[in-house]
Design goal:
This protein has 84 residues and is α+β, with helices and mostly antiparallel strands. Helix content is 17%, strand content 24%.
Amino acid sequence: MERYNLRRNCVCGEGKCGACAVKIVPMRRTPKWITIGYLERIQFVRDGKLSKAESEQPMFKDIPPRWRLACQYIVSDEPILVVF
């Protein structure tokens, strides 16, 4: 987000406050298996964006829209749409 001068009311930049939550929409036709980090799991369960049962799964099918923390999300070499 900083790279593109997109300002958000983010406090920590460490995956603790949840202020940078965005929806990531992959622009591909088939879902990809992804892993969500520990900090993202805790924050999304706390915010009601991920169920307790989902948080215990090791991997997820990345079917849009999927909530991610912009400060923790690692962009791969595939086209995505970020929804604020």
